[in-house]
UniProtKB/TrEMBL annotation:
Residues 6-245 form the Carbohydrate kinase FGGY N-terminal domain. PANTHER family: SUGAR KINASE, XYLULOSE KINASE. GO terms for molecular function: kinase activity; phosphotransferase activity, alcohol group as acceptor. It comes from Streptomyces reniochalinae. This is Sugar kinase. Keywords: Carbohydrate metabolism, Kinase, Transferase, Xylose metabolism. The keyword Cell cycle does not apply.
Length: 492
C-alpha cells in the first residue's frame, strides 16, 4: 500500500526545488531544476512564468513517478515579492519582474514618495518604498508599457501563480501582500483601496488568505498535467524566505532566521509592528505573527560569480582554499553590493568593491573575502534590527550556504552570535511541505526537524573582526560617489 506523503515545491531565483516528505517529516525524495533569470537591461531582472509552471510539473512527475507514495497535500513557496501581470483570461502579458534584485522602479519610487508621503507610507504599510516593494514595479509597467498595462487585470507572484494553475483560484497570502507596498495596510490586514486605485489602476487585486490556508484543490486539468490526484488540497503559499523560516522553526518572538542562498535574507519575529526606514516591516507567514526583515541583494551570487571566474573549481575546493586564507582574507576587504544593496543601505546604485588587492593575493583570499563580506553585511543588518527595537534571542541558519561549516562559522565570529542548525536544511520547499502536512493533519517542526548543531563564535577572532568591520562600514561612504558615477556609466 502506498505511503501518504506531502509535496513541497519552491520557485527560487536560480532553481526550483521539490521535496516529497512523509507525515513524520522524513525526506523521501528531492529534485531540483536549475534555471537562469533574464537581464534585458541594466537593473532589470525578469523570469517567464511558464518556467515556474513547467518546472513544477516536471518536479511533481519525477517525485511521484515511483508510485510508492500518494500525495495528500501540496505546499507552495517562491521568491518574492514579484510582479506577474495577466489579462482577464490569466494569460501573462510580459515576463515577471522579480523582487529587490530588480531596481528599475527608482523613478516611480521617487514619484510615489512625493505624492503619498514617505512617513505616511511607512506608517500605513510598515516599510518605505524600495526596490523590494512590488507597488512601484506595477507603476513602472503602467508608465513604461501603457498599451500592455491597459490589458492587465490580475497580479500574481510565483506561489500564487502555481496555486492558480493547480486549483483555478486567484488568491495571495497576507505576507506577500505586505511586501506589495504601498498597496497593503499592515494594520487593517487588507488592501488599501485608495492607494491601490492610484498605483495599480484597473487591477483586480487577489483575495487574501494566510500561507497555510487552502487555496483550493487540484483540478482535473492540473491532475492530468502534474500526475497528482484530483481533489488534493493546495496551500496558498508564501515567499520563500518565510517558508524557509518555517522549515527550521524560526517563527517565535525573538527568533532571527538567516537564509544562506543566492541572496542573504534575515527574518526577525517581533511581538508588535515595528517600522524603520532601513528595514522591512511585514506580516509573518502564520496568523498573528509580525516580522522585521532585511535582505542583501547578493551573497551566494557573489561566490558563484567567483567560482565561474576561477574556472571549474568546485565549492568544496574553494572553501578549503578560503580556510587556508584565514581570518581577514590576507588583508582583503569586499563590499558585496554587486547588484546594488537592499537593507540597511537601501541603495540600488551601490556596486561591489574589493579593497587591498596585491599581486600576492590568491583565489582563496578572494573567496574568503566574499564570505567575510556577507558576514559584515549580516552584522550591519543585525545592528539595524536592534536599533529598530528588535530583541534577537535566537539565531537559526538555513540554506545551501550552511553546508561545509566555514561560512556559518565566519558569520558567528563576525557577529558574535551563535547559530542553530537543524538536522534538515533543505530550504523553503520543506517549509511548504510542513504547511501542507498541517493542512491535513498534525505536524510539528520540532518533531520533523530537530536541532543538530550550534555554531558558536570563537573569542580569539573577535578583536580582528571588530577592526575589519569598522573598515567595512567606512568603505561604503568613502567609495559611494565613485561607484554611483560608475553605475551611471553602466546604465547608459
Amino acid at each position: 500500500m502506498a505511503l501518504n506523503a506531502v509535496l513541497g515545491v519552491d520557485i527560487g531565483t536560480s532553481s526550483s526545488k521539490g521535496v516529497l516528505v512523509a507525515p513524520d517529516g522524513t525526506l523521501l525524495r528531492s529534485a531540483v531544476r536549475e534555471h537562469t533569470v533574464d537581464r534585458p537591461a541594466p537593473g532589470h531582472v525578469e523570469m517567464d512564468a511558464d518556467t515556474w509552471w513547467n518546472e513544477f510539473v516536471s518536479l511533481s512527475r519525477e517525485l511521484t513517478a515511483p508510485g510508492d507514495a500518494e500525495v495528500v497535500a501540496v505546499g507552495l513557496s517562491g521568491m518574492g515579492p514579484c510582479v506577474l501581470l495577466t489579462d482577464a483570461d490569466d494569460t501573462p502579458l510580459r515576463p515577471a519582474i522579480l523582487y529587490g534584485v530588480d531596481t528599475r522602479s527608482v523613478d516611480q519610487i521617487a514619484r510615489l514618495e512625493k505624492e503619498l508621503g514617505v512617513e505616511r507610507i511607512r506608517a500605513r504599510c510598515g516599510s518605505q518604498l524600495s526596490s523590494q516593494a512590488a507597488g512601484p514595479k506595477v507603476a513602472w509597467v503602467a508608465e513604461e508599457e501603457p498599451e500592455l498595462y491597459a490589458r492587465a487585470r490580475r497580479l500574481y507572484m510565483p506561489s500564487s501563480w502555481l496555486a492558480r494553475k493547480l486549483t483555478g483560484a486567484y488568491v495571495l497570502d497576507h505576507h506577500s501582500a505586505s511586501q506589495a507596498t504601498p498597496l497593503y495596510d499592515i494594520h487593517a490586514l487588507d488592501w488599501y483601496a485608495p492607494w491601490a486605485a492610484r498605483v495599480a489602476p484597473g487591477l483586480e487585486l487577489p483575495p487574501l488568505r494566510w500561507s497555510g490556508e487552502a487555496a483550493g484543490s487540484v483540478t482535473a486539468e492540473a491532475a492530468r498535467e502534474t500526475g497528482l490526484r484530483q481533489g488534493v488540497p493546495v496551500t496558498t503559499g508564501t515567499v520563500d524566505a518565510w517558508a524557509e523560516a518555517l522549515s527550521v522553526g524560526a517563527h517565535q518572538v525573538g527568533d532571527l532566521m538567516l537564509m544562506y542562498g543566492t541572496t542573504m535574507f534575515l527574518v526577525h519575529t517581533v511581538p508588535e509592528p515595528l517600522t524603520d526606514p532601513a528595514l522591512w516591516s511585514t506580516l509573518g507567514a502564520l496568523p498573528g505573527t509580525r516580522n522585521l526583515a532585511g535582505g542583501m541583494a547578493t551573497s551566494g551570487a557573489v561566490t558563484g560569480w567567483l567560482r565561474d571566474l576561477f574556472g571549474d573549481t568546485d565549492y568544496a575546493g574553494l572553501l578549503r582554499l578560503a580556510e587556508l586564507s584565514g581570518p581577514g582574507a590576507g588583508g582583503l576587504l569586499m563590499l558585496p553590493y554587486f547588484a546594488g544593496e537592499r537593507t540597511p543601505v537601501m541603495d540600488p546604485h551601490a556596486r561591489g568593491v574589493i579593497a587591498g588587492l596585491t599581486l600576492s593575493h590568491t583565489r582563496g583570499d578572494l573567496y574568503r573575502a566574499a564570505l567575510e563580506a556577507t558576514a559584515y553585511a549580516v552584522r550591519h543588518n543585525i545592528e539595524a534590527l536592534r536599533a529598530a527595537g528588535g530583541d534577537i534571542r535566537r539565531v537559526v541558519a538555513v540554506g545551501g550556504g550552511t553546508q561545509g561549516g566555514l561560512w556559518t562559522r565566519i558569520v558567528s565570529d563576525v557577529t558574535g552570535r551563535s547559530q542553530e542548525l537543524r538536522a534538515t536544511s533543505i530550504g523553503a520547499a520543506y517549509g511548504g511541505a510542513l504547511l501542507a502536512a498541517q493542512l491535513v493533519g498534525d505536524a510539528s517542526i520540532d518533531d520533523w526537524n530537530p536541532v543538530r548543531e550550534v555554531v558558536t563564535p570563537q573569542p580569539e577572532t573577535a578583536a580582528r573582526y571588530d577592526e575589519l568591520y569598522g573598515l567595512y562600514r567606512a568603505l561604503y561612504p568613502a567609495t559611494a560617489g565613485t561607484v554611483h558615477a560608475l553605475a551611471a556609466h553602466q546604465n547608459r
